[in-house]
């Protein structure tokens, strides 16, 4: 008797501005899938333009999850995301629909592939001390401290993101171990059964051009006004939600710390650096299937993913139907 094909869950990752959202929408329509956003900022309400949230039309066409579920002043973490994602995935499967994760936030992706269950919870005492250091000495001093404690992680982190810096230093202060050592343990593991992981690739020059266009589009669509509106409603510029490429540069511009031209340049430069970190992180996973988005059109990319899904279903069906030898 032939076993019923097993439907895998799919992760579609890649650097910012690589085209993940468009491909995810196309695949979701073909696969009868629902999309779970793997973006650390799309979960926040009112942070729409700067997080490149799906359009209202896309949200009406394909069900999305982890979009606009938190207020801007609510804290979040990779583990909190993981719990939300697991709940959404269970609900999606209960409707006999496919789960399609789409996004590029590296710690969120890692929580899906190899959960960091042995990471200690944040220490309020440590974070309070680190916050005092941040206010007294500035973010550059925190980064210098991390470079000594964990040079490996420091080489891949955004040096201007105080929350990431403080979390890594907090773990080091609690355990005496570099934050990167916890990641290294899990990077060696295989992904869970039934999970296919794809990432979009563009040549460096092409990706940089797409990033330039993305940044200009966000500014044209009203990123400055969106940020002004949030600040005018009393949200602190120091919130976790605003420790994000784009919002951070606009906040500096609104505070008079940057000219508009310098803000735009810093926005683009920071986005390119972020994309580089995303690619470096994804390259550490040998089981990621890279899709050459520059060489193939969108339909060809869809077909590549569809073929991999069919191969997975065929393999798992054969494996399950083969009797065990005694």
Q: Overview of this structure, please?
A:
There is one protein chain. The chain has 326 residues and is α/β, with parallel strands linked by helices. The chain has 2 domains: 9-114 and 189-321, Rossmann fold, CATH 3.40.50.300; 124-183, Histone, subunit A, CATH 1.10.20. The protein is built from 14 helices and 6 strands. It has helices at 20-31, 56-61, 78-94, 106-113, 124-137, 139-149, 151-154, 162-175, 179-187, 204-221, 223-232, 247-254, 260-283, 298-321; strands at residues 9-13, 33-37, 64-65, 98-102, 195-201, 289-292. The protein has a 6-stranded parallel sheet with strand order 3-2-4-1-5-6, with helices on both faces. It starts with 8 loop residues before the first strand and ends in a 5-residue tail after the last helix.
């Amino acid at each position: 008797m032939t076993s019923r094909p097993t439907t895998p869950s799919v992760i579609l990752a890649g650097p910012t501005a690589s085209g993940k959202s468009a491909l995810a929408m196309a695949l979701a329509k073909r696969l009868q899938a629902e999309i779970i956003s793997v973006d650390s900022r799309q979960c926040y309400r009112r942070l729409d333009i700067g997080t490149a949230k799906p359009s209202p039309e896309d949200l009406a066409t394909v069900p999305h999850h982890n979009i606009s579920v938190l207020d801007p002043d609510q804290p979040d973490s990779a583990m909190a995301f993981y719990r939300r994602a697991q709940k959404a995935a269970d609900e999606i499967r209960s409707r006999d629909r496919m789960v399609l994760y789409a996004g590029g936030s590296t710690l969120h992706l890692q929580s899906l592939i190899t959960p960091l269950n042995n990471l200690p919870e944040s220490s309020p005492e440590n974070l309070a001390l680190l916050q005092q250091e941040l206010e007294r000495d500035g973010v550059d001093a925190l980064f210098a401290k991390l470079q000594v404690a964990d040079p490996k992680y420091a080489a891949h982190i955004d040096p201007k993101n105080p929350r990431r810096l403080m979390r890594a230093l907090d773990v080091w202060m609690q355990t005496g171990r570099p934050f990167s050592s916890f990641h290294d343990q899990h990077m060696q593991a295989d992904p869970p059964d039934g999970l296919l992981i794809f990432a979009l690739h563009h040549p460096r020059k092409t990706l940089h051009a797409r990033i330039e266009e993305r940044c200009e589009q966000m500014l044209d669509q009203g990123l400055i006004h969106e940020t002004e509106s949030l600040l005018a409603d009393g949200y602190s510029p120091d919130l976790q939600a605003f420790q994000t490429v784009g919002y951070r540069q606009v906040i500096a511009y609104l505070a008079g710390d940057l000219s508009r031209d310098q803000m735009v340049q810093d926005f683009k430069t920071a986005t390119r650096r972020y994309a580089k970190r995303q690619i470096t992180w994804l390259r550490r996973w040998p089981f990621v299937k890279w899709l050459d988005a520059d060489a193939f059109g969108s339909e060809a990319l869809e077909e590549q993913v569809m073929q991999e899904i069919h191969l997975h279903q065929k393999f798992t069906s054969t494996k399950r139907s083969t009797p065990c030898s005694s």
